[in-house]
Predict the structure.
Amino acid sequence: MIRRAQQFSKARVQLGPSGQARPVRPVPNNLRSSSFPTLQNAPCSSFSAARGFSWASSAPSSSSPSLPSFSRCQWRREAGLYHSFSSTALEGSKQAQKPKRRLFLKGVGAVLAFVGIAAAVDEGFRRCVQFWVLVLPMYGHYVYVDKISHPKRKKDDPADVAKPTEEERSAAFEVLHQRYSPIIERATRDMRGFYLKAAQICSMRDDFLPETYLKWTRKLQNEAPVAVPGLEARRYVAKQLGLKGSYDGDVSAVFSEWQDEPLGSASIGQVFRAKLRETGQDVAVKVQSPGIEHLFRLDIRTLKFFTSFAMPWAVENMNAIERMFESEFDYMLELKNMEAVRAVVLPSWGDRVKIPEPFRKYSTPRVLTMELLQGEKLVDGVRRQLRRIATVEGKDPVAYEEEQFEALRNGHIKARSPTVTRWKLRLWSWWRWIRFGSGAGEFLDLAEVMETLLRVHGEQVLKHGVFNADPHPGNILLLKDGKTLGLIDFGQVMELEPEFRRKLANLYIALANRDPAAVTKWERECGMETTYQKQDVRFRVCSFWMDRDTEDILQDLNLPDFMAWAESQDPVLHYPEDLYLVSRCSFMIRSLALAFGVQLSTAQYWRPYAEDALRELEGKKSNRR
């Protein structure tokens, strides 16, 4: 027992009854009063049994370590000494721990108080906290199902037989989708900002999000919640234009009419209908939500950090998006962009495409006044025609519309080339004209619409080097004549240098020829940097973003799985902004076409413009020589 005590503390010395010095030992940490609740008053036999000593020989048992000889009463005193010292040590230990515990609780309280005050004072900080509190538990739950409870089976691996089947895995994820989708929808509509923009981008393809999420993200393309009510919008416009009576929202000095109900809502503002007092012309007034720029930038930084560990393959895309939004919040820059695109598009496409004329006199960096295009969003026009067809055939319009889009999403209606789509439409129109009479066979030629969009943007990119990099469905209108397209929203216009256009033209010719070696070479020339420059990987990835998404490219993978595969095979080191925006333009138009059952190859449509650009650029280079 003495040796055991000496392992924990130095021995003390006191005089015994006979005047001899004997050690008095502090109790070791493992010998607390709770360990010997009855030792102080226990008989010696009990203490003996507890410690394994033989009192008959006044020595320890053979299994115990060697100890000095003590009398029976000495051992009793030792037991009492241990018990009393143990109680004192325990009380002292508790007293020592109380200040530490108080200090810890004060620290936690201070942190929570700081977070609460900062969230109350700074809207950006509050949004950041709200995002992480909402997303982290959900992300952890998804990772748990993906990696632990329902891990994915590896092909041709007998050891994976015991793992859940793909059907069980899908069912487990569907439970999570049903649980978390309504929560994320409410948060997206409430927080708006870049989260709303991200939802719009993700809803462009059916293979990027589960159907549970797609049901509400698609609606955000043209049903974004209103951020600024009509009266506040008028006050803001009056203040921006320097009008008297700005507090009352009086804009009558400039606009003879103003409709408080917005024509549309987007991620950073809303568009209102008005009439100019000076000319009586109907105009659209685009009003930026006050303070949205600050929130947008904070949201992007938050999502960038999240994607760094949740979706590493998307980090470079997020960097490019952040750079792209540098000019999104300056409406005077958008006005210049609109004038530049009008100058290069309307001379060639003015009979098929309309771009609104901006009014510089009534515009500021936060308010943009432009010509009002009479029409509806392209998606709404297609839905309206589907409902008209259902009415003629005696079917429920809403159910028929949903049935057609569901058939496209599930693959029951296969995406076809524009030529096949156009002939099928003609045959179908003739059959409907014979069966239901004149007017029943009239339907929008979606193949021609998608081809027009792709050609217009191809000419912008390769011939003129000035193009709109954000042609998402909400920015494309179908005008009243049912044929002409209206292009709006030019906040993300890119200008390309001649040398980059030359390299890009060579890249698109290589894509049209489907030459993996040439594609890899010219993509690298355009500034793309990856870790290994694997030819087969880069050919597939470049073809997907810039040309087509056919089966030989995706190979039964959806978009997230395909990009995760590409990142694992050849991680991206640098994605140049100009190349990213060109690929984004191509990707958005093709995604919209796929939603309507039309499959396009960008390279096939852009090849003539690429060849013309090369001839023009090479000719200019020869003339300079």
Notes: The mean pLDDT is 78. The CA atoms of residues 200 and 546 lie 20 Å apart. Residues 72-121 form the longest helix (50 residues). The first strand starts at residue 12 and ends at 15.
